[in-house]
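Issue: copy button drops trailing tokens. Both records pasted manually instead:
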Amino acid sequence: MDCRAARGRVCAAGAVSLEKGCYPGQEIVARLHYRGGNKRALFRVQTPTRKTPLAGSDIVKRDKANAIGRVLYSASMPGYPGAHVALAVLPRDADPTQLLIAEVDGQDATTITAWERVGVTEA
């Protein structure tokens, strides 16, 4: 599912009304809201690599090859040589200490050294 409204938890933030209007992805957002089915969240992650992680890179568990998440956007951190920050979609219950950003286009897999969940906190 590629629903940016669900990823960023805009419903929980009150940015989407389920009472009125139409917008792209409305059916998906309503289904997730009423069935409580969103098991993924947006995370800000930091990596200690020489190259910026590529958008679209898979995120895998250290002991498995199956992708459990994906890098959406990434950038270098000005003033911190060798540090990069990225936005990634991961399972809500993921333990980022056990995750790697997979190798893409010859880049080595890299660890995640810092993370925080983005968006509204759980009530």
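Record 2 (pasted manually too):
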Amino acid sequence: MVEQYEQSWAEEMAQLLLDIKTEVEQLPADQLALSTNHLEAYSQQYDKLIDRGLATNPQPSQPASKRGRKKQTPPKNLLDRLQKYKPETLAFMYDRQVPFDNNGSSGTPVIHMICRGWPCARPRLGDHKGTPLPQKITRIPREPQ
């Protein structure tokens, strides 16, 4: 998103996620999550960046004569996913046992998805075990409603 679509919010989001990851890694071994104050502060920063991104990428307008879904830009799609799946995206912040990347060993980190413009495919809680990502994402199927 940063390079291809020149989205400044995406660079700040990537930096925020890296900052959270660094702080979680520096926690003492007996502490499983960040303090409540840190959790709230990071959550508010995350929401502000999402709001800023949504202001930069508004819902596209469509003529009344056209039917069907409105086509959105990739940055708008990423923002919608980051907003909808906030608990899954920030799961590593609430529980240090949840890996930062997709599968804990060789997955593609969320940061790279944001920076390179790939669709954000964070797993749901508990799905991070044994589900390797392909080396090249060509198509992501629709999620069941």
